[in-house]
């Protein structure tokens, strides 16, 4: 009897399974749980938004770099661009002089430096883009609802979580995963991508730890 060959695992599945522990550890950081439980303040959220500005500025610089890659260009979507929305949020949260108030924490600066390095390698870029953007379209929506519920925030200050050009998140996420799976990474590149995704969650966790110390 002929046995059908087993298809190799898809990159999107490997990234999901390979980061399960790191993802849970990042989400269980005290800062995150207290913010979502309504135990902190809008000021704590503003600090988080300030760090996101540094992170997404670096990520979207990497996107611009990878866009010309024969394979990587498939992962760059204008609909996902976040920096303009974050800047509008920060102007609402801090006022017109928001750049003076939105200084990156040391952990955030390390995160951004790694993102800029990652722009030179497709597996690394794919890992960071996957963890950030799909997270924004999933768990990020929970953050928006909790900020509205617990802190009385309206649309202003939460534009980061709005994707006006993506009316339905699930079909878009499905397309994004298909693009990931179609990158054609070899075994070595796939291993690099999974390791980098784990590193991305670790960098995010370190940032949450610093934010927790800033907002005890």
Automatic annotation (TrEMBL):
The UniProt record lists the keyword Amino-acid biosynthesis: no
Entry keyword set: Heme, Iron, Metal-binding, Oxidoreductase
Pfam families documented for this protein: Heme_oxygenase
E.C. no: 1.14.99.3
Binding-site residues for heme b, renumbered to this chain: 16, 23, 130, 177
GO molecular function terms listed in the Swiss-Prot or TrEMBL record: heme binding; heme oxygenase (decyclizing) activity; metal ion binding
Classification via InterPro entries: Haem_Oase (IPR002051), Haem_Oase-like (IPR016053), Haem_Oase-like_multi-hlx (IPR016084)
Enzyme class: oxidoreductase
PANTHER family for the chain: HEME OXYGENASE
Protein name per Swiss-Prot or TrEMBL: Heme oxygenase
């Amino acid at each position: 009897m002929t046995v059908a060959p087993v298809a190799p695992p898809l990159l999107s599945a490997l990234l999901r399974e390979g980061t399960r522990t790191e993802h849970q550890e990042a989400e269980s950081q005290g800062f995150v749980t207290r913010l979502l439980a309504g135990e902190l303040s809008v000021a704590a959220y503003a600090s988080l938004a300030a760090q996101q500005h540094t992170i997404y500025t670096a990520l979207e610089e990497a996107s611009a770099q990878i866009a010309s890659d024969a394979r990587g260009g498939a992962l760059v979507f204008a609909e996902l661009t976040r920096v303009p929305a974050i800047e509008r949020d920060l102007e609402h949260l801090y006022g017109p002089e928001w750049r003076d108030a939105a200084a990156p924490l040391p952990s955030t600066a390390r995160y951004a430096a790694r993102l800029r390095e990652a722009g030179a390698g497709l597996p690394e870029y794919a890992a960071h883009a996957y963890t950030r953007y799909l997270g924004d379209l999933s768990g990020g929506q929970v953050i928006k609802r909790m900020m509205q519920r617990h802190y009385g925030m309206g649309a202003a200050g939460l534009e980061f979580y709005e994707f006006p050009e993506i009316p339905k998140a699930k079909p878009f996420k499905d397309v994004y995963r298909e693009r990931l799976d179609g990158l054609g990474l070899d075994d070595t590149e796939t291993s690099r991508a999974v390791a980098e995704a784990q590193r991305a969650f670790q960098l995010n966790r370190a940032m949450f730890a610093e934010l927790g110390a800033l907002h005890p």
